[in-house]
Amino acid sequence: MHIERHVFGSYKGYTTLARSPGVSIEDCRLLERCAFSIGQTYDSKFYKSLGKDPAFFTQQLPGHRRALTRITEGEKDSAGRSTLCCISVILSESDWNTVLMGDIGALMDSREAWKWDGSGDISALELAIRGDLSIPVRSRNKALLIISQIERCFVTHRQVVCSEADVDRDTVRAVEMMLPTAVRPRVTTGYRLLSTQCPTSLVVLAEQGAGAVSFHPNERFGYSPYAQAIKTGGIEGGTLPLQVISGYRDFGAPPRQQATSTHTVVVEKERPVNRWLVAAALLLGVLLGMVAMIPLRHWYMSSKGLVKHENRWLTPAEKDFSERLSANLIAPFQDGWATTQAVKRAEDRQILVGNKWMTEQEYLLAQARKNEGRLFNGRSWVAPEEYTANYLQSNGWQQVDNVWVKGSDLPQELIDKHMRSRSMVSYRGGWLPADVMMSLLSQIPATQDSSLLRDDPTQAAPADEGEAE
């Protein structure tokens, strides 16, 4: 039996460490990908247990070949960490089925197959190994229950995940031996793996593994049609029914298409179906559904705040925009929209300054006047002083001695100042010209009471300085 070999491990990172001449680069890539997916742990107890109970998995390779990978503890890497060493042996399908007969136990117990000196060179081997057809009674029924679950999951490609506490190495060996020859290339197994990411049909999780167990072998689940065929084929007598294993073709098929004990296919006759009646029922259902959707759609659109406008559902803002567009109140302008009045002014080259639209000539004149310090009073551009005077006069103010006052609210001090500036003299609550006042004073005798000259005659005359003393 010709065997090619491949070694995967880590010195400074996991990679292919050695391969025999018959292992291609593509084979290395497939073996590495599967080895990377078995999971990782830092539990030293798991590494030590691999010496007595090594983990393994099977894998199908191109060219009608099947590989068995044995996982043991490797050497410490460059950082002093524990590593896994995966050594794979590769057989042809014919040797696997006819010579080994799926007995992975015989291959696992061969020391020569797994010998490696740690160098980059590893040779192919020619080994005389034959499979043992005997299966222990304690593993037989449990293996049939697992095969039954694999058959149920075969069409949907679901993975069967068991626990190391429920399934041992001999049970996985029995599963490999009892698999139908026709489906063996599509069914693979893995034992004591650390993750369910490994793409095998059966995963037996180690105690330290991460993942959910989906199946516990129990007779209450019953046996599949293929498992029943194995049981009736003589497995109960301790003999592996090779004829059933090599000739079974309905693995994973629906129950009504399963073969009988003589392997003839029984298919139930289907009742004729009136296709026109089915088509009419479907069409009627579609029409009723469309009619029912009309009020439902109206309610849904209304609940979203949309309104119907010209057979379209629009937001209020979109409806207002559409109406304004229909009434020619807005028009396209540059990269957006503007009112028609604004578009016309833009075409006439008018400029909006504050709240007033101006022609370009008016705008240039306004800028020139503004630069001269003038202000616009609504009719023309004037100096700031004139603008202020016009504004105050238009609001009822008047200027008295360079002071602006409103209406008749003139301060008394301002009135006095204004009258004195015109040579007027205050006399008894009124004002007299200065020359009239002098004429009046010349007609009064010197001995007469000077109170006549005072504004208030009742007021006593002030005492002389001498009398005061």
What does this protein structure show overall?
With 469 residues, this protein is α+β, with helices and mostly antiparallel strands. The chain has four domains: 2-126; 137-257, no CATH class; 351-390, no CATH class; 398-440, no CATH class. Helix content is 35%, strand content 22%. The protein contains 16 helices and 21 strands. The protein has helices at 25-36, 44-49, 93-100, 104-108, 137-152, 169-178, 225-232, 242-247, 275-303, 316-326, 340-347, 360-371, 384-394, 412-420, 434-442, 465-468, and strands at 2-10, 14-19, 55-61, 65-73, 84-92, 125-126, 160-163, 189-195, 202-210, 307-309, 312-314, 330-333, 336-339, 351-353, 356-358, 375-376, 381-382, 397-400, 403-406, 424-427, 430-433. Strands 1, 2, 3, 4, 5, 6, 7, 8 and 9 form a nine-stranded mixed β-sheet that branches. Strands 10-11 form a two-stranded antiparallel sheet. The chain has a two-stranded antiparallel ribbon with strand order 12-13. The longest helix is centred in the middle third of the chain and has 29 residues, at 275-303. The radius of gyration is 56 Å and the shape is elongated.
Instruction: Give the strand tally.
Output: 21
User: Stretches where pLDDT falls below 50 for ≥5 residues?
Assistant: 259-270, 455-469
Query: Percent of residues in helical segments?
Result: 25-40%
**Average pLDDT metric:** 79
Strand content: 15-25%
CA gyration radius, whole angstroms = 56 Å
Judged by helices, strands and strand pairing, the structural class is alpha+beta
| Count of structural domains | 4
Shape descriptor: elongated
Main beta-sheet annotation = 9 strands, mixed
Q: Count up the helices.
A: 16
- Alpha carbon gap, first and last residue: 158 Å
